[in-house]
Design a protein that fits this description.
Number of strands: 0
Order of helices and strands: HHHHH
Number of domains: 1
Helix content: over 70%
Strand content: under 5%
Radius of gyration: 28 Å
Number of helices: 5
Largest sheet: none
């Protein structure tokens, strides 16, 4: 390989890094505006990384761009996993709170309170409470 070829690859690597940065920023904006989900953005970045690796893996001049993409993808994957865990925890808490409210509503109804009174105390809709009343 000639010195000119190596120099041109180094220049191209700098250009590619700029293009990759722009693509990642575009993906970030698309997610922030609600056009794509975090998961879809991660998929796009993973495909970009694979393409980048397929085209340039054998050239050391392109190593920095590959490492940068891998770091970004790892960060997005970790963020997505953390958000999913937080959402699951919140859903669990919400279900637990609703279960407690239903348990309390059952007891209040068993004591003869009206649906309207129980709905107000337990902070449940009358529609939900009617599922507790035997028909």
């Amino acid at each position: 390989m000639s010195a000119g070829t190596s120099k041109r690859r180094a220049e191209l690597a700098i250009e590619m890094k700029t293009i990759v940065d722009e693509l990642v920023e575009t993906a970030d904006r698309a997610e922030a505006s609600g056009l794509v989900s975090k998961a879809d953005k991660r998929i796009v970045l993973e495909h970009m990384e694979r393409l980048y690796r397929e085209l340039f893996a054998q050239y050391t001049e392109f190593k920095e761009g590959d490492v940068m993409l891998q770091d970004r993808i790892l960060t997005y994957s970790e963020e997505a996993a953390k958000k999913a865990a937080e959402e699951a925890e919140l859903k669990g808490i919400e279900k637990g709170i609703e279960k407690k409210a239903f348990d309390m509503a059952r007891k209040l109804l068993a004591r003869g309170m009206t649906l309207l009174e129980v709905a107000e105390i337990a902070e449940l809709s009358i529609d939900k409470l009617q599922t507790l009343v035997p028909r």
